[in-house]
Structure formats: structure tokens, C-alpha cells
Amino acid sequence: MRGNLAETARAALTAASAPGGDAFPAEPARLDGVTTVVADVCVRGDLGFVLLLHRRKDGCAAEELYFSIRDGTGVWDAPDHLSGGVLRMEPTSPRSVAAVLGGRVLVPSVDSETLLYTGRPQGDEGYEPVRFHTVLADQAVVCLDIEDATPGAPDPGPVRKPLISRIALLALLPGERFVVRAVVRDGAGYRPWGEPFDVTGTDPVPDAE
Q: Which burial class, exposed, middle or buried, applies to 173 when counting CB atoms under 10 A from its CB (0-12, 13-18, 19+)?
């Protein structure tokens, strides 16, 4: 089972990195039966993260987080499993999802922090703690606008992240701060909806004196 999930994660990263791979899906994926669903893909340079949803043998819905590094040829290495567990809701039930949302547009949570090899000079021999946030979105939300509010970072404007399920994955490096806002369709275009919120990475490691 774990091997099959890793293969699914690698295929998702490959597809997301292909030309046009970031296009908005016509319909967000749904967890149905025992099918494994790609809930979201998050690519940070040559670091790739995939959140999978699947149905366990006991009938409960569960999530699994995978990580991979892209080599110099653009090929993703075999993904490693980082974490997993039973979801606190039934993603196929609108009532269950609505109960977690509680009338809100988006519900963010900090799921985990993991020490990973990022290869950046800021890390300890290339290793840094990466913090993962998941965001549960209302059915009307089609994408997220993500603004990099990290101190000292350039301001190219918000990046539009499409939703491929009701759960979005964000991976933040130390010192990063993003402002996230829901976006909905408005006729032929899109418009922001609801109040934005901040997500942050771990505190950056102080420079050695």
C-alpha cells in the first residue's frame, strides 16, 4: 500500500511540473470508495510535497504526506513518507465538512514540522525544519491567493494556487510568512472572498557570530 501511495505522489509531482500543470481543475477531486486521491501538491523550487487522501480498511478516511527532491534533470526522486493519520472529518460528507468549517470560508491548521534536506545554505548542513499547514476550504472556493509577506522578500504580488480538493497544502521554510485569501469565481473572472489570514514557518536560525 505504501509503495502504491509513493508512486501516486511521484506521478502527481510529475504532472504538476509539466507545462500547463497548474491549470485550474474543472472539478475538485472527490474521495470515493477506496480510490487514492491527490488532495494537493506543493512545489517549492526543487522540493515537492504531496498530500494524499485514501480510504483505510476500517472505512475511515486518512491523509498521507509525501516528500521528494527534483534532480538536475528535472526528474523527481522516489518520494519519502513523512506523516499520516485519520482525518477528523469525513471528506465525502458535506455535513461533516461544514461542521469543521463552522460557517467560515477557510480553516487553517498547523499539521506538522519535519527536519528535511533543503540544500539551502541557511540550513545546518543543508537541513532545515519545514512547517506544513493544511487549509480546509468551502465548496465555493476555487483557489487561494498567497502573498509572500516574509520580511525582506520581494513583492511580486500574490501567487494564485488552484484547489484540486477541499484541502490545500502549504509548506513553509524557516522565517517565511504568507498571507492567504480565498478566491471564488465571479462571472468570467475571480474575486477574493472573506478575510485573509497568516501562516508562518519556524523561526529562522540566528546567524553564527
A: buried
Which DSSP letter does residue 123 get?
Answer: S
Residue appearing with cell numbers 509572500 = 148
From the list 142, 124, 125, 134, the residue with the least C-alpha distance to 172 is: 134
The string of pLDDT tens digits covering residues 122-137 is 888 889 999 999 999 9
Amino acid at 137: A
SS3 130: strand
Tell me what percent of the residues of the chain surpass a pLDDT of 70.
89
- Render 76-107 in DSSP notation, one character per residue: BPPPEEEEEEE-SS-TT-HHHHHHHHTT-SEE
Scanning the structure block, which residue is given the C-alpha cell 523550487?
A: 45
Return d(Cα 41, Cα 39) in angstroms, integer.
7
CA–CA dist 110, 135 (Å, integer): 9
**Predicted structure pTM score:** 0.88
